[in-house]
Amino acid sequence: MKKWLLALLAVVSLIGLSACNSNGKNQEKITVGSKNFTENIILAHMMAEIIEAKTSLKVERKVNLGGSNVAWKALQNNDIQLYPDYTGTIVANYYQEKTGTSQETLDKTREFLKKDNLTFTEPFGFNNTYTLTVTQETAEKYNLKTFSDLAKVSKDLILGCEFEFEDRPDGYLGLQETYNMTFKDVVGMDHGIMYRSLADKKVDVIDAYSTDGQIKVYDLHILQDDKSFFPPYDAGPLVRNDVLEKYPEIESALNELGGIISESDMQILNAKVDADGLKAQDVAHDFLVEKGLIEN
I need a surface site. Which of 58, 111, 120, 170 has the fewest CB within 10 A? Predict the structure, then answer.
């Protein structure tokens, strides 16, 4: 009887192992990360949704990791395998090189990434460039239309900006050099707090993204970058090559997101989260359903 039971258990174990092996791919996981602001979190969820819909892979989501350098290091350390990033950030911030036109910056992005065995797949379709924003009241008080106008009175104003913006060459450091723009004080803060700080008059100027939904919500005045300081920031998925080599279906899935999001689309999606209080994951899911890329 004991021998019979042992034999039966052995058979059951083999069947279990066989089933596990035959479905092993279904248990494979990759991790998508994001930076610490609404738009990037929404895009990360879109990437996760499309991969899970178009492949048999499971996707773990580690969103809201931190600033650009935090997400970049997490990718290089293989703590995450992909996340959404921007061409201007990659070229100017990570590789400390000069940008160009949108296409030139995309080409440079892909060339520089080769040395780190990374790939920037098809861009999402919008350019989320940096800008500087003030309230309508401040714009009228100082007659502000351009960055050059702001530079003339910057010594009397307080800049509120993301923590990393203050030390980036494509951020405040570059603005000082290009526009001779030096503020009375610079206050670092999370992206989501900046708009409320501006509305509450705790700061006078903030850095913003051109796709931020709060620009419409707060009826803010965007200043013109009259010396074209800020480079193009075309958004798209940034992925480790070893992951694409192991799972080539990931690139095919991500490329379905190529060119589907306009700047206006992104403003609306951001506003749904920041102004209407919807969950970023739900907003991402509903948008992909609306575009016919995934099923509800």
Answer: 111
Spatial separation of the C-alpha atoms in residues 203 and 189, rounded to whole Å: 11
Q: CATH 3.40.190.120: does it fit domain 130-222?
A: yes
CA atoms within 13 A on the CB side of 19: 6
Spatial contact of 127 and 210, defined as CB atoms under 8 Å apart: yes
Neighbours of 19 (CB within 10 A): 10
Half-sphere exposure of 95 (CA within 13 A, CB side): 19
Provide the token pair at 207: 């850095």
Task: Please tell me the CATH code under which domain 29-127+234-290 is placed.
Answer: 3.40.190.10
Question: What is the helix (H) or strand (E) element at residue 239, kind and residue range?
Answer: strand 235-240
Model's pTM, two decimal places?
A: 0.78
Instruction: Find residue 82's DSSP bridge partners.
Output: 32, 239
**Cβ–Cβ < 8 Å for 270, 284:** no
What's the mean pLDDT in 90-95? 94
